[in-house]
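QUALITY CONTROL LOG
STEP: pairwise intake check
CHECKER ROLE: data steward
CRITERIA: each record must contain a sequence immediately followed by its structure tokens, with no blank fields

ENTRY 1 OF 2
RESULT FIELD BELOW
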Amino acid sequence: MLQWQVADVMTRDVISVGPDASFSDIVDALVGNGVSAVPVVDVSGHVVGVVSEADLLPRVEVADDTGRRPRRRRAFARKARAMRAAELMTAPPITIAADEPVASAARKLDAAKVKRLPVVDGEGRLMGIVSRRDLLRMYTRPDPEIQRDVEEGVLLRSLWIDPATVDVRVVDGVVALHGTVETKSLAGLAVRLTAAVPGVVQVVDRLAWTRDDSRAGHGYTFGTPEQLVLPPRN
């Protein structure tokens, strides 16, 4: 497997609440399960919003407000009076599809400044939750699994390179490639695809090549790992 998807790392046992869940029900769900947010789903399983600890805090802050922050008090008043999830939740929800790359989830989490995202199917129904911690799971892969993916997935299946011609060594997620391949562009592509293997922390490039095709104009086309295009095989 050259690239993990959200479905490979997400948590499938998801705690959720309905739109009519009370303030107390939501607090119980958060505290009882040790999470900071829960998705709100309708009767059909569609995600309609997310309720987080931040959505519940206005009630605490307004209750303790001494009048020194009137603007803040007015801004929080509506949520402070809210009683149901439908009134408390943040909507529309920020979600991600199960077949999105893990890298996309990382970018979306960072851009939204949230700790977790509901994972949905093509119809917007809840499938799981992906958190920052889930994204780190791929870096716990054993070195032998990573080595197998590089040898079989990258070298043999993707680049048609005999793994016997390239020595692959993996220590704590750091992959060292030693050997000689046909062209300079092929060596570069091997390094880039290896770096995209789940669990790879770093690639040490010790590859040599027999022909420098960098100026020939017909080598391998470089782009993102998903867009890499191989020339026709002779």
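ENTRY 2 OF 2
RESULT FIELD BELOW
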Amino acid sequence: MPSDATGSSSRAPDILRYAAFSSEPTGGNPAGVVLEAGGLDEVAMLAVARRVGYSETAFLTPDPAAPGTYRVRYFSPEAEVPFCGHATVAAAVALATRDGAGSVLFRTCSGPVAVRSGPAAAGLFEASLTSVPPSVEGVTAGDLAEALAALGYLQGDLDPALPPRIAYAGARHLILGVASRGRLAALDYAFERLKAFMLARELTTVALVFRERAELFHARNPFPVGGVYEDPATGAAAAALGAYLRDLRLVDAPTRITVLQGADMGRPGRIVVDIPAGSGPITVTGVAVPIEDGS
């Protein structure tokens, strides 16, 4: 694939583009992937991410002393993010396409993330990531009021069965349960106000979720801190949601849930989340396909 960005080395990096959590290149969440990023510094990585223009681009540097281990950094068009689920799935599928399926270890800014790739239907590859240890914390009344104001939500727009929390499984997400699918579809928020709120609290996205039935959720993820209005399919937030549901005993773990995301943006995606009993890491699985034309 042609190179289209300049790094800190003499050779521009090869940039791959994949749609994660979808079997179609026009669905799911597009991610940039650089499999050999050893010659790039932070400035160059950010420049590549800006040029690619997706919500995140993953930059992999192989560890010569540990085969199958990669240092991975993730950049949005505006800043580095500690962890990104969809770009992890995209990168793992890119590695499987090049080297064959198997297990690898990604050393991310949030900690080590084990990733396993394998064949899926229709000749595709899928990848499963196992999160870092998750955690869940409460939300103050003042923070909730500001988040709702930035989103244009009223208290009645929330589902009382899904209380607001901040959940972490590699990145911090404010999780808000939405009372109806129609309200979830009507996303229209104050970009700069929500961005300021999130930056002050080190949030990566706001995860708006509607529970259709016990193990099926619909989600939308505003991502103004990354410089984009909305993330089409958010693996890190899905992992955080799994931790949230288990922590609040809203599911009977071990269990599996499905998160549908991106349909309201015209990029439908499907994220599978396995929630073990206890307090351990969450596993997120999805397919990824190349975006051949780079669009």
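INTAKE CHECK: passed for both entries
DESCRIPTIVE NOTE, ENTRY 2: Residues 16-131 form a domain with the Diaminopimelate Epimerase; Chain A, domain 1 fold (CATH 3.10.310.10).
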